[in-house]
Amino acid sequence: MSVRNDQLLLQLRPEGEPTLDNFVVGANRELIDRLRAFAGSDQLYLWGAAGSGRSHLLAALARRRPSLRLEASQVSDDIEIADDALLVIDDIDQLSAAAQGGLFRIFIAAREKHIALLLSGPLPPLQLNLREDLRTRIGQMLIYEIKGLSDDEKTTALRHYAQQRGLPLDDAVLRYLLLHCRRDLPSLLATIDRLDEISLARQRPPTLPLLRDLMSETRQTEIK
């Protein structure tokens, strides 16, 4: 499958804040369009594997309107949120029993107080280990799966990111990254960042031998 560069929007790191414009879209165009239209008391649940971009999207939307953004560990049984605001919670599968009760009460009050909800987790609603009434409420939200990038899309995104850094990477380096590194995009981009740093520090071109050295040194550090 061929992928045009303009079909992907690339997150700039570390300078750029998470936005909808710098998210790598891939097959998630409908989701991104829906998030751009997010308004009023909308209720959306996003799910996807670790590294799929859930946190990026939640942070991006939280910046667009008054919001309360919480990690699961920060949610309490007496959670409160202002009228007409947005409540954003990531990793809802990790909510404590008390926190689940607090979120359920927010669901009850959401319509009257015009509260919008944006929640995310690693699984579809029916597979979440949550109390039944809360799982039912989440299942009634608008639900989107964040779809992973294909290898072609990852390759295009990585090449474009490297070019933005002024880092020439040949196809052998990109293939090695996809075969031997963690395959989620944040990890792949972090490896390119590190390769760039080592290339400059050692005055060596960012070739496959240098990448192999980097991966070997990383593994040795993890073992120690």
Please tell me about this protein's structure.
- With 224 residues, the protein is α/β, with parallel strands linked by helices.
- It has two domains: 38-145, Rossmann fold; 151-223, Helicase, Ruva Protein, domain 3, CATH 1.10.8.
- The chain has eight helices and five strands.
- It has a five-stranded parallel beta sheet, with helices on one face.
- Helix 3 links the parallel strand 3 (86-90) and strand 4 (116-121).
- The longest helix has 18 residues, at 185-202.
For this structure, the CATH topology of the largest domain is Rossmann fold
Question: What's the count of strands?
Answer: 5
The CATH superfamily of the largest domain is known as P-loop containing nucleotide triphosphate hydrolases
For the biggest β-sheet, the strand order reads 2-3-4-1-5
Strand content: 5-15%
Can you write the helix and strand succession as a string? HEHEEHEHEHHHH
Named CATH architecture of the largest domain = 3-Layer(aba) Sandwich
How far the N terminus sits from the C terminus, by CA atoms, comes to 41 Å
Tell me, rounded to a whole number, the average pLDDT.
87
Provide the gyration radius in Å: 20 Å
CATH level 1 class label of the largest domain = Alpha Beta
